[in-house]
Amino acid sequence: MKGTILENGYPSIEELKNAHRFPSEERFQKGPVAVIECLQPIPCNPCENACRFGAILVGEPIINLPELQEEKCTGCGMCVASCSGLAIFIVDKTYSATEATISFPYEYLPLPVKGQAIKAVNRAGEVVCDGTVTRVMNVKQNDHTPVVTIAIPKEFSDDVRSMQRLNVAPAEKDHECCADYTYDPADPDDLIVCRCEEVTVGDIRKAIAEGADTITGVKRRTRAGMGLCQGRTCSKTVSKMIADAKHLSGDKIPLDTARPPVKPVPFSVLAGDEDI
Amino acid sequence: MLVNRQVAIIGGGPAGLTAAIEAAKVGAQVLIIDENARPGGQLFKQIHKFFGSKAHNAGVRGMDIGLNLLKETEESGAETWLNSTVIGLYEGNRLSVVRTMEDGSKKIHTVQAEKILIATGSQENTINFDGWTIPGVMGAGCAQTMINVNRVMPGTKALMVGSGNVGLMVSYQMLQAGIDVLGVVEAAPKISGYNVHAAKICRAGVPFYLRHTIIHAEADESGTLCRATIAALDEKWNPSPNTEQSFDVNLVCIAAGLRPLAKLAQMYGVEHGFIPELGGWMPLHDENMETNIQGIYVAGDTAGVEEANTAMDEGRLAGISIAQSLQLLPDQEAEQCKAEIRARLESLRLGPFGERRLQAKNRIVKKEVQL
Ligand code: SF4
Ligand code: SF4
Fold it and tell me: Average pLDDT for residues A165-176, to the nearest whole number?
């Protein structure tokens, strides 16, 4: 496995172990235990309140990483559905002589049923082995975060963290209507920037070349930002084009003038009130 | 028609509602004006469990927090005009509102209020690439609204552009809706949102394309999106030739960040500053969320793009400050409540994901922003 958590999107076992977030092998051998795969200091702590055995510690400040007191953890699984990041798993390496179980949050429909054969996946979503569903917990307290438990061959217990979704659509046939696109570094002048007034990149480049160095200046010359959305869509693109062309930072490009009505209003409504 | 109220709140999202509750429950006469058919802003599309602490309803789904806020708003006695749009803010704290009446007709009403809170939220940024106007290319927030609020599938095969929390979360929610997410494209060399969000979509098999950008989208004969092409970025952040990869998708979601929506504040002459960490140009405010114009307050994404928890706390802060300045709350009590909220806000902005926002907010209230 290459890369770090920031490149892969999931932590490697090494990263978990280095951060002391992986229970010890002795603890695993004693029965089910929580594995908390939450490695970034984010403002979050519901897991701490969820464990009635006091096995999860966040404390103050709230960005502390949740720390598992492995000797206090009973593997009860109460914390799994309460984790907003769906980052807690229960691993039981003592399930049988050859199999381990993994419990994970699973917020997809359809839910699997007990006894169902499924494909077990690792943190990257790759299928690593077959598994069997041993339990689906979806009580009211879980608030729509079902917890699924699967039995898998023991040797995969450090890797398996979920199952292949059952709602994956069968692969559609790739269509043949368009040819592969080849990048052309000279970006075209006819690309639309303001879709309401159909103003193109070329129009705006011309306006900038003519001396427009504000959004309002571009607007005066091209009508960009004068349509239905009042520049909500294009003003950022226009300011970026000016910034790039004139080598200015964003703070040097002032906002365009704000004028009423900020949202378009039919004349019939404007004319309809005698009291104004 | 001219309507007088003590407090007018523009936008009934997380910031507007919490402010309304705080001000109305101590007796302020509050009017919330919202352009949607239902208040709650973006909360009802947040179907995931929130982060934060217990005081922030951590572990509760955004939509359920929204329901609780609506109930509290009703109990507080605040009045709400729905389907009603504020189109201008004029001298003398006068708002011009296109109000939808009970019979569905639209009328212009002028609302005059002693205190006005602008909590109009933010808008999604676009990326300008070849084909970005094709139907099927949309903002990630837009796709999220279609799926979670309108219950309409925006497509069946999708590509997400942007790996911030919005991009990651919407990717996950698309998978939940049964949409195949073919990848998440990110220009930076690392994933920018929370790892716990990224890990969820990794387990579902979604690959990341770091140092890539979208360069092209193509429509089929019917005019709808059928293919999107990405390319690797070189060290100057330009697409490199011969690195194109195409995906057969009918949905491209753009999660390129948000920027504050504050035209009304700007129109009224509220001082703005350029704060890239909070979305660019934004109205400046003091530690009570009041702007340089007395009686005009901002909160939530309008006061710098963050997230729903900070928006709710900023709304509370504004609501209490408003109540205090209307002398509906004794100073000592108000100051104590505000201190608690400020401490909570600070805790939400700790850590690597929040510290730049924390520093920016500190610069703003200390008036250290260059104008
Ligand atoms: S599995 Fe049970 S005991 Fe262990 S940390 Fe979770 S809630 Fe606490
Ligand atoms: S609830 Fe989950 S995401 Fe939040 S701190 Fe605990 S383990 Fe991390």
Answer: 74
